[in-house]
Structures
1.
Amino acid sequence: MRFEPRHSSPHLAPVGNVGRLMFAVVAALVPGTAAAAWFFGPGVLVNMAWCAATALAAEAAVLRLRQRPVRPALADGSALVTALLLGLALPPLAPWWLPVIGAAFAIVVAKHLYGGLGYNPFNPAMAGYALLLVSFPREMVAWLPPGDGGLDLSAVLHYSLAGTLPPGATLDALTQATPLDTLRTQIGLGRPVAEAMASRPDLFARVGGVGWVWINGLFLLGGLWLLWRRIAAWQIPAAMLGALGLLALVFWLLDPARHAPPLFHLFSGATMLGAFFIATDPVTASTTPRGRLVYGAGIGVLIYVIRTWGGYPDGVAFAVLLMNMAVPTIDHYTRPRVFGEEKGR
Amino acid sequence: MNGCPAWSFPGGLVLDGHKAESTREPVAAAPVPPVLVLPLQQHIGNPAVPVVEVGQRVARGQMLARADEYVSAPVHAPSSGTVAAIEERPVPHPSGLAAPCIVIETDGEDRPHPDCRPVPDYEALDPSALRNIIREAGIVGLGGAGFPTFIKLNPGPDHAVDTLILNGAECEPWITCDDMLMRERPREIIEGLKIMRHALRARRCLIGVEDNKPEAIAALEGALEADERETIRVCPVPTRYPAGGEKQLILALTGKAVPSQRLPVEVGIVCHNVGTAAAVYRAIHRGEPLVSRLVTVTGPAMERPRNLEVRVGTPVSDLLALAGARTTDITELIMGGPMMGFELASDAVPVIKTTNCILGLDHDPHRQAAPVRPCIRCGECARVCPAKLLPQELYWFARARDMDKVQDFHLFDCIECGCCAYVCPSHIPLVQYYRFAKTRIWAQEKERRKADLARRRHEFRLQRLEREKHEKEERQRRKKELLKKARGGDEAAKQAAIQAALERVKTRREQQHAQARNVEPQTEAQRRALAEAEERRRRLAGDSDGGDDDAV
């Protein structure tokens, strides 16, 4: 009897697939996303929807142009994850073109112009975010106050599509700076941190910004689940949070009046989202175990530097992009010693 | 258990063992088939050279083909019969190609060869004599690679062997032939081990067995005699693929990492398979060369998965029948295990010395539904790699055909265990890329060696020409010097010598002229013609120098 050999070893069906990984990431995003929607209204979900629709359409269009199979690429969920991360990073009240431009840039330029999944050197979501932040700074820093924000879904959709707000409401009255931004401004004005935080109980809770603590906490929870499932490498979030926390602790101990406490840094802005979901993007991160520690720590340090001395209130996007650039170098110098390789070779 | 040392090797996978299926019933002997096909190459090294002729009657254990040079192994007749052919037949090899084989039509008598006699007292033998017996018995590593065993029993003058390890880990799923051998014939293994220990002069012996084989461990423990327990230890190792990899097992049992690209003997360790030890026992104590082995026939496509004692050369189809295979369900027929074995193109190929398992898989739909996606650099492969390589980088460079880089990243430390490909979420056939790169590098190396040889020859030729030129110049120089020296002597004497030489020439010429040549036999006419010629010559000689022209 004859058979048709088709495979070389191993002959066992491989476990897992890219799609399963990506959908696990989506699942892990759910609690944090729910908290974000709870505190900042339905605009969060509207942004994510815009991003997802744009990203999937862009992915399909580019793949068709590149004459690559469309279905498996859409099914692997990588474009969806990019879109959701970008959507989560955008301000909750945004005109429709903001997520659309960001997501299209992320997929078309940051991902496919470099060769598509697996070949892009920069985190696509963060590249999209950085483009928007540099191009549309006014729209990108207008955040809603925590609480329900006073806008229901129809009002948000109205604003998103037509740019009109309910009668009597103005954009300036509705929006305000984020806690990170506010504290920065206050420190810049020479006010002690404790006083600045105490003066705005609507914005600052005990450890971080109102609402932001919950959001970060739930992203942390989802992230820990990813680590437990071995979907994300533990080294990156551990090193990033460790470096950020340590640096914040040192400066806070040196001068508590001019530096926010470490817990504030860890539970504000995009810290946890960045640590577990953005920095851990395997394509653009270092792949060696030691390299991941260096990469994560680099991001942590850069976030602190940008937040404290840089020109932007939060620094996750730029920190990630800068460390993306360093990845080939990091990988080169952190190659593990192979089995039986002598030291010092 | 008994204070066995235990270290952990990096990477690896816990796989579904599927060992229970084929260990339900004891080992049975497969019947001797009417036709045995014995490939001349069943081992690593040079193919054996036939020493029998077509039509010759052979007995069981008779040598059919001798070893060719050092790294080689002879082939013996697994049963008595007649040599029917020496020709190319399909052999079990990943390439699916045919290779030279000796075909025997068995006579059903299974008559042993009279030369097959046990060695009475092996301990009195010199290790080299012992090695020679093992070599002549055609014993090769039965764990799968098939490296001639006598070579691994020869540590050479530069190395002392401290530890002899028997590999009973059998870490690949589905395979249980070593397990059954340890359960049923532990004493053969231990006796073989003692012979190997004698040949190697090893201080201690360890038998490494994965802890998913408690019956085998108990059987070996039970078979050890009190005085043997001092130096021979049965050591359970945690069940984690590839615990049976040579370097992985050595690390797990001794804590020693065999240096990259080196042999275990360089750290004082030699490792043999348990089946090989049993074969050594049979060769020494029973005088039987390697003509049969245990083979696991298993897989989801078998009604009756089991272990069989099989004569080398038996067709795989016979084993499938004995295991009740649903051949039409088999989508992949594998020789070896699911992680490192290879697919057979036909069940008409014979069992060879290194065949440990015939595995019939019937679940393909999984693999059809798993298209290859781009590498997302997740690093899972690096986490499970037992050689601590970076498979994702190796893949990248192998794909780019950057053969320098791929070696920089230690391609040749890859043992092709398949862990990386098994965990790859993008379903990239990573091992295939590494095999491709290795083959390519070997080919390049061969080319380079050929070119080197040509270059060396050319350089040597240039060198020789140069040398010859020098020698010639030297000779001429010396001659000139001699001449110069002579010229520096008495001028008068020289003049005299020249004068004397001239005189000699003159007298000789006159003599020549005087002499008549071609004297006899001459006719009258000839004589007259000669006389006329002489006359003309004499006249000419009297003429001026310019007269030469007229003479023509």
2.
Amino acid sequence: MMLKGKQSWVFQNRPVIEASAVSGGPFEGNGRLAEDFDIIHEDLWMGKDSYEKAHTLLLEEAITTAIKKSGCETEEMEFMLAGDLINQITPSSFAARSLSIPYFGLFGACSTSMEGLALGSFIINYNGAKKIVTGASSHNAAVEKQFRYPTEYGGQKPPTAQWTVTGAGAAVLSNNKNKEGKLVTTSATIGKVVDLGLSDPFNMGGAMAPAAADTIIAHFKDMEIDPSYYDLIVTGDLGRIGQETTYELLRKYGVMLQRERFEDCGLLIYKEDQPVMSGGSGAGCSATVLYGHLLKQMHKGIYSKILVVATGALLSPLSFQQKETIPCIAHAVSIEMSD
Amino acid sequence: MQQVNPEPAQVEGNNKKDKKLALKVKRDIQSLPQIYDVAVVRGKKDTLVVYKVKHMHRMRMKQIEKDINKMLEKNYPKENFTVSSDFKIFIEAIELKDKMENQSYSEKEAEEKLQKVIELKKAMT
Amino acid sequence: MGRKTSPSPVEKGYQELQKKHELKRPVFKNCIRAFLVGGFICTIGQAITYFYIYYFDFTEQTAGNPTVATMIFLSMLLTGFGVYDHIGQFAGAGSAVPVTGFGNSVISAAIEHRTEGMVLGVGGNMFKLAGTVLLFGVFSAFIVALVRTLLTMWGVL
């Protein structure tokens, strides 16, 4: 039985994360994790004539680099699972067009990275595929254009706002039997949509915190473990406000996380002095930090078990103009070092 | 307050009556407490009156202009005045006065220039 | 539109908890910055006005038009070189309220949508931010003029 508890999957066959790669833009190149990026572009245009094309390029590069690092060929990939934030997820679909890998387009806003990893692991675990590539991406200018104001518009962002990451992360999953010294996914918890009535699109962290807390609580309940099982619990892009709120919310429900083992990708990616207000966000945020920074740290042995909880705010520019509140979701995937 | 305080001038340089009138108009306007610098140029038919309003009274400039017009109308019913508080007109008036002090500047030229300044004042856009 | 029901106790409880961690806008600091930067922009505008008065045949009355045009041109350069959004983040209303902010909202939209082509992109989206200001500005001017005309006709004014 693979379903455990109410909403969690256990991957007995332990799908292997063979390799991963991340690409990023200039702002990320000046960030704290610049060294963990495989490709850094100096310019937001990336030599393309639109930001959307640059967005597509980011994902293509991340995927091809990840495949190359895994020692496979693009043709060996049986499925590709990817998504982003742009209308009708065109950047991901356009990348799938040029890569010509059978493709599932996913949308879970900024939680897409873990949605892809969970589904990919599920397919591998049940022998639906031998090799799968999954990824998520976002491009600051392309996303801002759709959700907020023009890039050069001089509106003042409040301190609760977050900065959309320009970057893509991709990972190659396989059913490799030899798991020694490799990273494997062991379980995943699929979150439900939670909406506690916040409607400020400039405070996504605050809106997403209950979704993150809900999924984390469900994960520990379903898996019958407690937070000390993990060396690190990392959320996707809650930012400063969302992270603090989630921490307190979890305590209220009796889940006592250790503060120093609870991180957020949106806070890890940029330096303190970068003008990102509350932290990074976007589908590329959790993807680049996990597939770049965190997996490297795991290979180095700094962590051996982590739980990644990517959060997403499922709003559209239309929905918030119609005064709808912001529904949010979070998916958790547990990654462990196999011994 | 920095003042230019120009002497009143008249296009017809030797016209005693004009000179007297210009001086009197200047004194009348200067007696108003909201005003600190006055230039008067007397032409053949028209008289140009330009003044500066003290900073704290600039909010009421329209009212002051109305008052001055009324006062001049009352005191000199036969004369034709052009009243302005515009800085550009003030500069032009000083320039005209300085030119007129030069002997080679003819009365005809002076009158033409005065009409030009009055036209400039009337332009709205 | 949206959800009409008032927040449930759970929602209320969470919103209070969230509020504790939410970073407040530094209103006082923003006001000071807006005052200084807004004042600085106006000082530049005043300098340009004097420039037109001294060196061209413009009066205080008429120097306004070329001054506004010049200010918008400067704001266009700053927007194009990617400086104005940084000023905006620092100054807030200080750089949004003067006419340069209006210029910025038009120009930034035009730049942003250049990739969708001249007609549908630039033409269709240029006034996406400034359009409401224009519409309601013209509309309220119309209403005020109408009221004034009627009052004058009836001899009230």
3.
Amino acid sequence: MDHLDKLESQSIYILREAYHSFSNLCMPWSMGKDSNVLIWLSKKAFCGHIPYPLLHIDTTYEFPEMLEFREWAVEKYKLDLIVKINEEARAGTGSYTTSIGYETHDPVTVTHELKTVALQQIMGERKFDALITGIRRDEDPTRAKERYFSPRNAEFEWDYKDQPPEFWNQFTTTLEPGEHIRVQPLLDWTEVDIWRYIERENIPIPQMYFARKGEDGLNYRFRSLGCWPITKPVQSDASNIEQIIAELRVTKTSERAGRAQDHHERNAMQKLRAKGFM
Amino acid sequence: MSAAITNSPAPNLEPKLKIVIVGHVDHGKSTLIGRLFHDTNSLPEGKVEQIRKASEAEGMDFEFAFLLDALLEEQEQNITIDTTQLPFRTDLRE
């Protein structure tokens, strides 16, 4: 068994354990590269049919190309897709006294309101008991401390000071009312593993990951995709996966360097994630 | 990318090399690992600066352990609360 086979079979094992353990699963899907690997693994795990709905938390600041990809993928994979927008936050109605957006608020506040709170709203409506996420340990130091089955309390909080050990694949599957589990099958994958797997399996992804000429004549590509006002591309000539992998083997830039919410303040990701961000 | 990169040998992905660092509490296990990442040029851009800022905020010179001990509570108390897993690679092995 080679390296990718091991990662794939471990992820499929985690997905099947989750499906066996929970009655109301949901898989958030950002249309990004890791998310599309999760779709691929889910299809392999369940004989081509994904037995849980997908969820796109639409911040209304999505790149148009990503929305096009969303439409294309829903048709292609026959996805059961839920699209959730925190409408009250955008409109400044309900519990909001003002409209929340990048034009007026800092990236940590907007990320929390339009992603985490939107997720809380749909969790309240649909009562999901587990969410399958595509986070990886190598993305961020707090994600590096995560578990495969990571409990969240009714307030969505992550108790990072008291996490289950998960010895011998003993996962947390029991819940109190209102709690849920984050099931994280890609924790052990690195950015390069993801690319090698996308190449091997020929998994469709948005074209924004590949280099294109910018207005200044230089080439740019996105290494990580998020809301357009706070997501910056990196300068790169890599126009295919082989070139991306070669680039990643020498680059000193971190994957999420172009994601403003991570760098807004010291421990920004810890604060976001402790309150329920993925 | 340059030809030198594409022509370098493909790294071995298996088997992994397992290294265990054992030591008494507060004797520098995390610090040693942070130092190994630093001295092998394995840290991404800006990480040293980020650790320097965190160290300054805690009134310390430069705390290599903050690479792994990234939680605020860990840095404030200068302890490891929970494990951290970071990928480490060499030219020949990932």
4.
Amino acid sequence: MAGIIGAFVSLIGALFFLLAAIGLLRMPDALNRMQAGTKATTLGSILFLFGIGIMQPDYLGRVFILVVFIVLTNPVSSNALARAAHANRKRIGAVLSPDALADDEARIAAGDRGTAGTKEATHGA
Amino acid sequence: MIMIKARALGFLGLWTVWLLLTAPWNTQEAVAGALVALLISLLPFSAASPLGDLKLSPKALAWLVAYVFVFIKALVQSNLDVAFRVLHPKLPIDPGIVKVKTRLKTPLGRLLLANSITLTPGTITVEMRGDDLYIHWIKVADPDPEAATAAIVGNFEKYLEVICG
């Protein structure tokens, strides 16, 4: 019985991986692909691992550690990838409207010495 | 004080991982693991661990448990959202990057907030500068920073402020 439930949970996890794969194919650019890739693979891995944990209760402790590590590290890696993709947004043809980050970068490049966060930086004129 | 807390939590965390890895347990392994975890938690760098930011009052711990459930709910919602967008024939996306502000001050709080935002419906944290987070939003509902802050950050910040300021 536990075997059937575990297999079913793992199957649902695998379905989320399938959704992530379809998302990777259908989305237009890297940043949007990451939306599908990050979220669906996180829940997919969690369900897949817990399915194994249900089938083999001895592994539950190890499965729990894996889940915690995946939840902590998966978003961090996608954050790094998103940052790199944004730095290369013209080359990958990303369409972003609005793009607050590019606006602030342009403002800093234009010689605005204030921090990126302050809207009304004082010009010394 | 915060150093002692960081070391104690570091020790507990390491030992818990060891115990979970070595199940089923015997006394020798547990004691050996505790000794090694204690040694590591006394190394100089462990005092700089962000774990020291965690508050340990009963209220903070209760909110931490509640936060786990809020997080799981958001994670499931975001997956259903991804499923809907990916399978929809017209691919309903309208991506953009919005700027939101956070009130959280501690590194741990900000780490958890950025991670939570990445795993919730339609948003990915791209960059953090000072108090501002830049969020890639797959369907921008409102480009205004205040409205975006309320929509994206508000729900998690409420909990994280109690848990780790």
